[in-house]
Amino acid sequence: MSTLKRSPADFAFLGGTPAFADLLPVGQLYFPSWERYEAAMRGIFERGWFTNHGPLAQTFERRFAELVQVRNAVTVTNATLGLVMGAKALGLTGTVVVPSFTFVATAQAMTWAGLEVSFADVDPHTHQLTPATVEPVLDDDVSAVLAVNLWGGTCGPSALEALCAERGLTLLFDSAHGTGVSVDGRPLGGHGALEVFSFHATKTLSATEGGCVCTDDDELAARLRNIRSSYGAGEPVAVEVTGNGRFSEAQAAIALLSLEDLPANVANNAMLHAAYVDSLAGIDGIRVVAPTGADESAFPYLVAQVDEEAFGMSRDALVSLLAAENVVARRYFRPGVHRLPPYRDAPRNHTLRLPVTEHLARTLVQLPIGALVDLAAVEQICSLVAAAHRFAPRLHVEEAA
Amino acid sequence: MSTLKRSPADFAFLGGTPAFADLLPVGQLYFPSWERYEAAMRGIFERGWFTNHGPLAQTFERRFAELVQVRNAVTVTNATLGLVMGAKALGLTGTVVVPSFTFVATAQAMTWAGLEVSFADVDPHTHQLTPATVEPVLDDDVSAVLAVNLWGGTCGPSALEALCAERGLTLLFDSAHGTGVSVDGRPLGGHGALEVFSFHATKTLSATEGGCVCTDDDELAARLRNIRSSYGAGEPVAVEVTGNGRFSEAQAAIALLSLEDLPANVANNAMLHAAYVDSLAGIDGIRVVAPTGADESAFPYLVAQVDEEAFGMSRDALVSLLAAENVVARRYFRPGVHRLPPYRDAPRNHTLRLPVTEHLARTLVQLPIGALVDLAAVEQICSLVAAAHRFAPRLHVEEAA
């Protein structure tokens, strides 16, 4: 790592040496040791069973179900397909309420499932969907609410469960960030009709690509298993559509190793998160957003909010400055999904106002955390942020596009 | 392997020793040697780039495009998703004509894409869709034809191209079986608006799971790349939907090795196919179906037709007898897709008659071929079939359900 930035000319965007020689990404990007991976993969070679619900996929489903304390964990190719197939298995029709402040796949999955999407705003402090933000958009077309458990926290599932029970709505959860997160003394996984987890390479539990639909409803799980594979699988229940959402044995092998290492990876994240909180605490205009609505978190993201006036620099300028230092800071979720095609062109969205979503999309930044990051890197990043704040009046950074 | 069946009592279903100690599957199930796989996977570990259009996926796309002589090869998670995303990229609406004599995913992919499906019958000799079988089902709602290149042969793309051009219909191909197949001096891959290949573990080219959409239309390919990933990729073109159809680096690693070994695997299939033709030639009532409409084939399936009267036993009885011998014979495609939900319940299908499809669904059988099969196994299987024919009048086999 380079020396500290003692003057504006030391910043890489002005020609100084980048703080990091290699790109430092946001996200977990954990991978097991080669030796353990080899042992798992050699077994697959010996069995010659590469996909179609093999023994590793079955074992992983059992272990993940135990971890999140649900009756059924149905592995899928990826979380997007899990949401699509989940909506089909539930037989949803009409309109689904989703937050706009989420990864685009949350809404797109509902569109692939043939449903209309209606966007709700989120709470300004937790960034999560709440009964107060959902209620204003409920109308007669709404049949379901797809809530998102964000940032290693939760949206407070029990309050949404009460609202949906009262209004006769189906409730499902995008828990893509939710592995290792507990609320009300219980892991995410068994709330609402179903919850969908992501095992993408950037998640706390990785299968490189992958996902899982969890539910305590055995018949729903049986439908999901049959929808998931054109070959059929599990108990025979009638389904209208079948596709290919299979979880290969190679995905399962990596996921099983990642599951073994989950406690260590979560502990590492917790330590890094605490270090960020400490080191950024003294800098005006930037504040770490803690996971909310959770008893336990896996700290999958380091989310910070930039107050341009107090910090002296916009969030987009900070991202640009950090990029030159080889620190990949991300601006999730920008813009709000209601501003993206096809939703931005829907007539109902012409009068839509989501002020909290708009504000968060302008001010939040994610900084590197996870298996590729250590304490020294966190200190260096925080020192960069401090220097950016200190020299802000003398810096003219071109904002990231 | 056990001795020959010299009397009815020697058959395993009557208590004799099974011809094979282990199950002999239909399908390729090729996998590279551990050493070559290890070299490829160690590179992925070192780069820490596990998915999201990594270097191996990019290399595979270039090499596959060269193999099939098209401008664009867009890898996807699996062929079903490739067909769904292909239909979306083409902006198809209304009704698509598909054969009923196909794997269920052909039709289901169109249903996932929000399209109506209209079933056409196939030619009794080639088992393929032809202008003569498509024309009777064309009406004003039909906007496209999704033809299938079956059994390592083709449906004769040029005649369907002429028909669709004349009628103003979009033509696309399910070439799941099509790797290594040529017609009119050119590989499958560049016909119609697009062709979709499968790299499922049972295919001639395997990525365990995987697929590829091929097209000479650069703008269509750019739309496909953007639809394929919520993160976006490639040239910016407007798309209405995005999802997760990404091809991971692990999939690409296996596919690249499989591509290197394709000539050897095709040569092995050709040899086995010829051995089946020779050995079954003298048996009344069973006939190998040769790939049709192709200059070159990869012989991905051994398809035989059973004439119950001449053979002395129904196709379903033969499948049952072989299963007891640990020979996995498959009955693709049974029933025709028009007989499966949701299609069987569609009002338009109540009067639908597809006599050729019905006949093929009752009489065709697939016998083992591919990397796990050798000449001795083929001879043993053919000897079992010969014995089944010889002793048929004295055998009472319970038909496979």
Task: Sum this structure up briefly.
2 copies of one chain form a homodimer. Chain A is an alpha/beta fold. Chain A has 13 helices and 12 strands.
Polypeptide structure, described:
- Two copies of one chain form a homodimer.
- The first copy, chain A, is α/β, with parallel strands linked by helices and 401 residues long.
- Chain A has 13 helices and twelve strands.
- Chain A folds into two domains: 8-29 and 262-394, Alpha-Beta Complex (Aspartate Aminotransferase, domain 1), CATH 3.90.1150; 34-260, Type I PLP-dependent aspartate aminotransferase-like (Major domain) (Aspartate Aminotransferase, domain 2, 3-Layer(aba) Sandwich).
- In chain A, α6 (157-167) links the parallel β4 (142-148) and β5 (170-174).
- Chains A and B meet through α1, α3 and α4 of A and α1, α3 and α4 of B.
Topology:
The structure is a homodimer of 401-residue chains.
Chain A: H1 34-47, H2 55-68, E1 72-76, H3 79-90, E2 95-99, H4 104-112, E3 116-120, H5 131-134, E4 142-148, H6 157-167, E5 170-174, E6 182-183, E7 186-187, E8 194-198, E9 211-215, H7 218-228, H8 249-260, H9 262-280, E10 286-289, E11 302-306, H10 308-311, H11 315-324, H12 355-363, E12 364-367, H13 375-391
Parallel strand pairs in A: 2-3, 2-4, 4-5, 5-8
Antiparallel strand pairs in A: 1-9, 6-7, 8-9, 10-11, 11-12
